[in-house]
Structures are given as C-alpha cells and as structure tokens.
Amino acid sequence: MTAGKYEDSARYVFRVRGILNPDWATWFPGFAVTRDSAGHTVLCGEVIDRAALYGILARACDLGLTIISVERQGDES
Predict the structure, then answer these.
(1) Alpha carbon distance, N-terminus to C-terminus of the chain
(2) How far out from the chain centre does Cα 9 lie?
(3) Can you give the pTM of this predicted structure?
(4) pLDDT for 27-75, tens place per residue?
(5) What's the topology of domain 10-72?
(6) Are the C-beta atoms of 35 and 7 separated by less than 8 Å?
C-alpha cells in the first residue's frame, strides 16, 4: 500500500472487550460475531473502503464498546 492511498476492500478482525450476544451481528451487517479464548468478542468481515471502516469504528463507539484491536488481514507488511 502506498502512502495516502487506500486499497480496495479487505477482511478485518475487530476485537472488543467482553462477550456480546451473536444477535449484535445485526448492528454489523456481513460480520461474523464469535468469542476468543480470552473472553472477548471477535467481529470478522469484509470492509469495502475507508468510509466503511470509519463507520464500523464509529458504530462500535456509539454502542459503548471498548475496541481492543483492529487487524486488516492479508497485509504483507
């Protein structure tokens, strides 16, 4: 990825503090909601562009979720 340029869609993994009911997936269309071994919730799905990424982060914030990590999968860096 070159500086200042955002590549096309990519798969992202978001970890949030605590266990969310899988019904929360309706707040994150296209994302799978699972748990990790540390007792946190993992949201996995395709993000089509930067605006969509910011939208997901804003929604998590609006819902009062504590974001532990965000990982873009498939990066070679």
Answers:
(1) 9
(2) 13
(3) 0.80
(4) 888 899 999 999 999 999 999 999 999 999 999 999 899 999 999 997 6
(5) Alpha-Beta Plaits (3.30.70)
(6) no
